[in-house]
């Protein structure tokens, strides 16, 4: 048996069948090009008879990609097959994928045909498709709920009719791994009885699997079928597809790669795909963007948290040796690397690691002070802890005496329904007891307040604007959020801001108040105090603290 597993990607056909997903021809071409770079073996480009748009999409893909087979779906009738062929005939390697259901429930209620009639339609469809191309795939829809002996009969007859790939779909995600293994084994036995086994053993006829995820078993079932002899897996990027989706391409590929040892031990040889795994993340993100189907953060392989570590014990392990908590190299999948994310569960090792990565070397005593302050003031307070908040705590610990500004008073208007803009007037006291007063307007009260504070202190607040910095005074807002601590209207507003200056220095500020505008003002002034203290004393402090670690 061959060790090669063929990856049949159906993102553009079954994936597009996800409720709410509709791709334009251009978007389909963009995804097809990404799939070609990913090096899938077959792209199922669509179901051409379904609509003129689907036809155009398949045709455009057939004309665009070169190093990959292009498949088109067709029911078991001549019109569907003719239309499929018209759409894919210019492809380098065109494949017609014809199908009909074989389960009694589908025969009785949907097709309203007998088993004999369906067998005949299947055989005729394969023979008809074969007139166009040698690459004919047949699928027995709802195979896993079909009578096993009848299914075996259909499989044998479609192979005799010329099908080179026979797909055994778990259309409704019903089977379980051991049962699916036994079903594929049963069909392999049927080939032996029909004297077709040599074709299968030599790879001239291939069993394919196509699993849906209704019970969350699509990937497990697909892998199980590979152990039983299937050599083509039908799957979609990010696992999108009908209902709960299809088997996720990235999970199958990485399971085969990561557990190659297991497949080799069990089969006597490894299972291999030709996928360029570094293309997985870019392709996943493209599919998510164009389909509008968000990737859940904890999604295996491609979720934002798949290689992120927030809890102290794990962070310590990963800092010492990535392999303690990671079974794959994120860079092999197309991520830039693993991420140590500061948060509620972070410990001292992660804090030390983060500070060192920003150039701060601290003695154990100083580290203990910063960690304690981080624990008290940030860990439980913020949901998302950018690294700048940690550095901010360090600056508070050692440079608080340098902080120059304090909000003395503020008047900020809030409007509803009036054709006017909110106005903010702020009074800030500096450490020479001079008052700095300014007012400004904004799109909302916090925007107005931030502009007024910046103006009072000689800065120009650009908001989150993408435009380039043009003056030393420019300040860009990188992150802003307000969380409520407590319940109801009496909860405490906690505001976090991260700002960036002309030189690319980012600092964070925190402010708390029962009035959320006041919390925002405090946060911005805190950030500006830290920024100015860092500018005047930051580098010197780095050297002083590092010297303490030597002595
Ligand atoms: C498991 C799967 O993913 S199968 C693929 C599912 N994908 C899609 O259905 C997406 C695109 N589908 C469509 O645009 C439409 O359903 C079309 C254009 C294909 C057909 O539209 P309509 O002609 O209006 O038929 P409709 O969808 O209502 O019903 C399906 C018909 O196909 C028949 N049919 C279903 N599967 C097959 C098959 N594999 N082979 C032959 N006939 C079939 C049904 O019995 C029914 O026939 P009837 O009209 O004689 O009762
Ligand atoms: C058309 C077939 C292969 C299908 O999508 C299914 O059975 O789920
Ligand atoms: Mg399907």
Automatic annotation (TrEMBL):
Please give the residue ranges the record annotates as the region Regulatory domain: 406-551
Q: Which SMART domains match?
A: LeuA_dimer (SM00917)
Q: Tell me which UniProt keywords the record has, alphabetically.
A: Amino-acid biosynthesis, Branched-chain amino acid biosynthesis, Cytoplasm, Leucine biosynthesis, Manganese, Metal-binding, Transferase
Origin: domain of life: Bacteria
Q: What's its EC?
A: 2.3.3.13
GO BP annotation list:
L-leucine biosynthetic process
Q: Name one GO cellular component term.
A: cytoplasm
| Gene3D superfamilies linked to this entry | 1.10.238.260, 3.30.160.270, Aldolase class I (3.20.20.70)
Instruction: Name the residues that bind Mn(2+).
Output: 14, 210, 212, 246
One matching Pfam family is HMGL-like
Question: Does the keyword section mention NAD?
Answer: no
What reaction gets catalysed by this protein? 3-methyl-2-oxobutanoate + acetyl-CoA + H2O = (2S)-2-isopropylmalate + CoA + H(+)
Question: What EC class is this?
Answer: transferase
Q: Which SUPFAM superfamilies match?
A: 2-isopropylmalate synthase LeuA, allosteric (dimerisation) domain (SSF110921), Aldolase (SSF51569)
Q: Name one GO molecular function term.
A: acetyl-CoA C-acetyltransferase activity
Q: Which pathway does the record list?
A: Amino-acid biosynthesis; L-leucine biosynthesis; L-leucine from 3-methyl-2-oxobutanoate: step 1/4
What is its cofactor? Answer: Mn(2+)
- Indicate the segments forming the Pyruvate carboxyltransferase domain, all copies: 5-281
Subunit architecture: Homodimer.
Family (UniProt): Belongs to the alpha-IPM synthase/homocitrate synthase family. LeuA type 1 subfamily.
**What is the stated purpose of this protein?**
Catalyzes the condensation of the acetyl group of acetyl-CoA with 3-methyl-2-oxobutanoate (2-ketoisovalerate) to form 3-carboxy-3-hydroxy-4-methylpentanoate (2-isopropylmalate).
Protein name from the UniProt record = 2-isopropylmalate synthase
Which organism does this record belong to?
A: Thermodesulfatator indicus (strain DSM 15286 / JCM 11887 / CIR29812)
The gene behind this protein is leuA
């Amino acid at each position: 048996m061959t060790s090669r597993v063929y990856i049949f990607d159906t993102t553009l056909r079954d994936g597009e069948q996800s409720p709410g997903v509709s791709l334009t021809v251009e978007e389909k071409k963009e995804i097809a090009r990404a799939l070609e770079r990913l090096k899938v073996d077959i792209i199922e480009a669509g179901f051409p008879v379904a609509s003129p748009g689907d036809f155009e999409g398949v045709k455009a893909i057939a004309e665009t990609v070169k190093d990959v087979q292009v498949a088109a779906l067709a029911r078991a009738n001549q019109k569907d097959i003719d239309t499929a062929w018209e759409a894919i005939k210019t492809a380098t390697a065109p494949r017609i994928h014809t199908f009909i259901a074989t389960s009694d429930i589908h025969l009785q209620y949907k097709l309203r045909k007998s088993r004999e009639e369906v067998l005949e339609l299947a055989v005729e469809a394969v023979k008809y498709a074969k007139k166009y191309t040698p690459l004919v795939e047949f699928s027995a829809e709802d195979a896993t709920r079909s009578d096993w002996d009848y299914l075996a009969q259909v499989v044998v007859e479609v192979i005799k009719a010329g099908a080179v790939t026979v797909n055994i779909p778990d259309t409704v995600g019903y089977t379980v791994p051991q049962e699916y293994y036994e079903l594929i084994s049963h069909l392999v036995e049927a080939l032996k009885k029909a004297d077709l086994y040599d074709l299968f053993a030599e790879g001239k006829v291939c069993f394919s699997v196509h699993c849906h995820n209704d019970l969350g078993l699509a990937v497990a079932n697909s892998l199980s079928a590979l152990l039983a002899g299937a050599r083509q897996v039908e799957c979609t990027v990010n696992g999108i597809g009908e209902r709960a989706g299809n088997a996720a391409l990235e999970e199958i590929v990485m399971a085969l790669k990561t557990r190659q040892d297991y497949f080799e031990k069990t089969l006597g040889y490894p299972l291999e795909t030709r996928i360029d795994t570094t293309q997985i993340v870019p392709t996943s993100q493209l599919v998510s963007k164009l389909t509008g189907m968000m990737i859940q953060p904890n999604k295996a392989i491609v979720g934002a948290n798949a290689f992120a570590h927030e809890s102290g014990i794990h962070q310590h392990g990963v800092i010492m040796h990535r392999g303690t908590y990671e079974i794959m190299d994120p860079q092999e999948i197309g991520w830039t690397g693993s991420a140590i994310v500061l948060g509620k569960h972070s410990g001292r090792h992660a804090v030390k690691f983060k500070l060192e990565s920003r150039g701060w070397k601290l003695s154990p005593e100083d580290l203990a002070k910063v960690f304690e302050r981080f624990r008290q003031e940030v860990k439980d307070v913020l949901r998302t802890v950018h690294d700048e908040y940690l550095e901010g705590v360090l600056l508070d610990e050692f440079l608080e005496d340098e902080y120059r500004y304090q909000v003395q008073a503020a008047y900020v208007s809030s409007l509803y329904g009036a054709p006017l803009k909110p106005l903010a007037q702020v009074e800030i006291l500096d450490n020479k007891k001079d008052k700095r007063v300014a007012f400004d307007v904004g799109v909302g009260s916090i925007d107005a307040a931030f502009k007024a504070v910046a103006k009072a202190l000689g800065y120009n607040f650009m908001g989150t604007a993408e435009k380039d910095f043009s003056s030393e005074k420019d300040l860009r807002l990188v992150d802003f959020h307000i969380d409520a601590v407590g319940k109801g209207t009496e909860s405490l507003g906690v505001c976090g801001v991260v700002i960036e200056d002309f030189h690319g220095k980012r600092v964070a500020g925190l402010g708390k108040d029962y009035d959320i505008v006041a919390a925002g003002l405090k946060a911005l002034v805190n950030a500006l105090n830290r920024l100015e203290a860092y500018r005047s004393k930051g580098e010197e402090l780095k050297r002083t603290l590092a010297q303490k670690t030597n002595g």
